[in-house]
Amino acid sequence: MNQEHNVLEEIHVWTTPLFVTQMPDHTFLKDALLAAVYQAKASQLTAIDSGIAPKAKHALHESTLDFLELADANVMEAKRALEELVLEVAYSVNHGFWPEEMQADAHIIESWYHVTQNGGYHDAHSHPNCSWCGIYYLEPGDAHLTGKGGLNRFYDPRVNAEHYADPGTAYLGGHGVWDFTPTDGQIIIFPSYLKHSALPYFGDKDRVVIAFNCVIEAY
């Protein structure tokens, strides 16, 4: 006797796109950018010069939100490269929704560095007033070593995903967070609504990143 089987089509909707790549010319830019970071750090008036949520940050230095505006050739080149990458990301997810004749540019509107020392962390947060955000791992320190921390954790944006739990929802609990282990020169680009944190870092070397917020303008 033949048994009929239901055909189940699995459909994935409302996914969250994140993009990981390597900074172009990182080997050439790294030392100059690190020098610019530490020069700016030496002149900071407070540990968190941005003044934003200082209690959410521990054992780290944060600049004002205009680091990539420095009149330095290497900093300007880094900004140009990052904007080019964000524009590529924006086009890849939006080209089906943009008018065929539309042109666009990506503009970094805020940028800052984090220099994180041993025991440093940044609590969960998101970035308003922009469409795309990014983290450039200029010097990830010892974050690639097991047990050293310093990972960036991203949180499931489906706020009601676990409002009820039973064996049928086990798959949700397994996807509540995604931890990203950075390596030297990597960049991660993600939508601004996505909550994320920097987990406690335990290393002898500084963990140095350049973070940025970006908008897309059409013409």
Automatic annotation (TrEMBL):
Pfam families: 2OG-FeII_Oxy_5 (PF13759). This is 2OG-Fe(II) oxygenase family protein. The lineage of its organism: Bacteria, Pseudomonadati, Pseudomonadota, Gammaproteobacteria, Oceanospirillales.
